[in-house]
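Figure 6 in text form: structure in, sequence out.
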């Protein structure tokens, strides 16, 4: 009797071990890696297709996938599963999660196990692209993203970040990497940051008024370190003003570099494709300048240094001047308070005279940009620059 009990125990132990081994073997079969595409150069207002591709898709009997997106950046249009290679039955739905988020749900099962070549698309989602960076993120709580073999056994997909790769949609971005000096605040290789120290630089870009009438919404919570002032940068495909394709306000640092609103990164132009552009730099009370030739711009561009000489500027020394002979530094000419591209009597009579005596202020009459409108703005900048004019088309 004891021998039978021992034999029975051994059988149970062996069977338990076999089933445990079988379970371990099934769990050790990995799910495919599922990747939502990263789509660049999308155009706001137009349709964009986001393929979902797989790697290691072998003997798959079914899958269930959830992909989240922000509705204010993407509007779902349709989902087309790859019926020619998957076969079977597929259902695709779009669920409103609230708070501006939606979830795409796709479920599929095949009649037999299906294997696909790596990189094959299992579904193509079509959206209307609105704007901005639009993340596409897999939602997996253990069941909301899953794969099974033809027998219905779940395949290993842990950790989720290994098996479900997020995607995104973003519009094309071109960056300007430029350096320029302003004559007014310049001294010994750098520019002052007096206006920032005084807390006078506005948090919202100042070029919404005439004559610029720029309607950009660039705004910050605080002015970054080492900022001299705001500048307005314009891109043109040709020399004529009519060829302007984009404008953006950014910060001019005391070392002459132009940055985006973070005070560090290059000034980005979302929606502008990489290419060759003339770069125009405008400032509140300095004569504007334009690059002498088109500059190759892309997401990461080579530095264009306006300060190295008059050959870097359209029109040469006309409307441009050397502001530091010792360092051979050239800069934008101060005194153009009306921002007409020239320094004439109206800059003095219409802007400087009415502002004379102001202290701790942010005004175009402050030609040296120290926050004050005193006699040195007139004698040191307007008088020596009187009659200067640029040749910007």
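Output sequence:
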């Amino acid at each position: 009797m004891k021998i039978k009990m021992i034999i029975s125990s051994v059988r149970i132990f062996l069977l338990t071990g076999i089933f445990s081994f079988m379970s371990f073997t099934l769990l050790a079969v990995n799910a495919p890696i599922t990747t939502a595409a990263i789509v660049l150069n999308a155009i706001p207002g137009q349709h964009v297709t986001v393929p979902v591709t797989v790697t290691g898709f072998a003997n798959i009997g079914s899958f269930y996938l959830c992909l989240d997106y922000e509705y204010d950046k993407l509007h779902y249009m349709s989902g087309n599963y790859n019926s020619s290679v998957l076969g079977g039955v597929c259902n695709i739905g779009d669920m409103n999660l609230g708070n501006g988020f939606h979830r795409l749900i796709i479920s599929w099962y095949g009649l037999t196990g299906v294997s696909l070549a790596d990189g094959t698309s299992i579904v193509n989602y079509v959206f209307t692209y609105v704007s901005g960076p639009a993340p596409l993120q897999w939602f997996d709580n253990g069941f909301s993203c899953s794969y099974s073999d033809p027998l219905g056994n779940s395949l290993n997909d842990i950790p989720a970040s290994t098996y479900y790769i997020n995607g995104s949609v973003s519009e094309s971005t071109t960056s300007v990497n430029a350096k320029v000096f302003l004559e007014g605040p310049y001294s010994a290789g750098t520019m002052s940051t007096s206006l920032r120290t005084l807390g006078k630089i506005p948090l919202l870009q100042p070029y919404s008024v005439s004559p610029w009438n720029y309607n950009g919404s660039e705004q910050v919570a605080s002015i970054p370190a080492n900022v001299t002032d705001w500048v307005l940068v314009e891109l043109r495909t040709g020399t004529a003003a009519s060829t302007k394709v984009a404008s953006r306000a950014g910060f001019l640092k005391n070392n002459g570099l132009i940055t985006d609103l973070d005070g560090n990164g290059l000034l980005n132009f979302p929606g502008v494709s990489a290419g060759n552009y003339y770069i125009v730099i405008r400032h509140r009370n300095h004569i504007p300048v334009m690059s002498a030739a088109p500059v190759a711009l892309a997401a990461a561009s080579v530095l264009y240094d306006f300060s190295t000489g008059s050959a870097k500027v359209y029109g040469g020394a006309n409307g441009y001047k050397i502001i530091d002979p010792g360092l051979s530094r050239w800069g934008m000419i101060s005194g153009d308070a009306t921002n007409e591209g020239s320094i004439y009597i109206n800059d003095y009579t219409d802007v400087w005279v009415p502002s004379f005596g102001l202290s701790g202020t942010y005004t175009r009459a402050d030609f040296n940009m120290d926050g004050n409108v005193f006699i040195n703005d007139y004698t040191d900048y307007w008088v020596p620059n009187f009659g200067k004019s640029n040749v910007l088309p």
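Caption detail: The helical segments are 2-27, 83-86, 160-163, 194-197, 345-355, 375-385.
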